[in-house]
Amino acid sequence: MPKLVFSRHGLSEWNALNQFTGWADVDLAPEGIEEAKEGGRKIKEAGIEFDIAYTSVLTRAIKTCNFILEYSDQLWVPQVKSWRLNERHYGKLQGLNKKETAEKYGDEQVHIWRRSYDTLPPLMDPTDEGSAAGDRRYAMLDKRDVPGGENLKVTLERALPFWQDEIAPALLDNKTVLVAAHGNSLRALAKHIEGISDEDIMDLEIPTGQPLVYELNDDLTVAKKYYL
């Protein structure tokens, strides 16, 4: 039975400041480091042994992946990093305080920007400060493919090829897989794996640093789902 473990990165510095983060490359907060280490300890206690790990190209997810593997005594496990597992891009909201943004635009509008499946945030221009267009880690992409903002629908559309090309084949080969990524990239994949509706996905929250285990059937449908 294939086994898949999701881990949202530990609390980041901007999480701690209640700021929209998205593709901004911020580090883990001290609390987030401890969350990631504890996730690794829980995985070790559960006896879960990984064959491969996948993560994004953002520091907070990479460090979380490393801590999980280190504290489960599996730091040697091969890792694959991909921009397709990045957090959703929050456009011009990136760096803004969530409370102050809600006071400016209203709680309902901010909730829609954060949780709706297909509503885009205000888009960031490639020339804006903070745009990923000039970032070397995305140099292989056509400039038109570097987002200026994403909703969950777009996040799933760019994550799904990586699922189909990399993660699903590993699971079909009966490998045990770790995906250490972000709240929204994991929500997008969970929507696909679990068949969650566009409406119900708004209510799905994946907590930081808490490993989510999927035990899968041979056709990769979910047999069992639980948090450690």
UniProtKB/TrEMBL annotation:
The keyword Iron does not apply. Pathway: Carbohydrate degradation; glycolysis; pyruvate from D-glyceraldehyde 3-phosphate: step 3/5. It catalyses: (2R)-2-phosphoglycerate = (2R)-3-phosphoglycerate. CDD domains: HP_PGM_like (cd07067). One of its GO terms (biological process) is gluconeogenesis. The active site is at H9, E87. Its EC number is 5.4.2.11. InterPro entries: His_Pase_superF_clade-1, His_PPase_superfam, Phosphogly_mut1. Catalyzes the interconversion of 2-phosphoglycerate and 3-phosphoglycerate. This is 2,3-bisphosphoglycerate-dependent phosphoglycerate mutase. It comes from Enterococcus phoeniculicola ATCC BAA-412. The gene is gpmA.
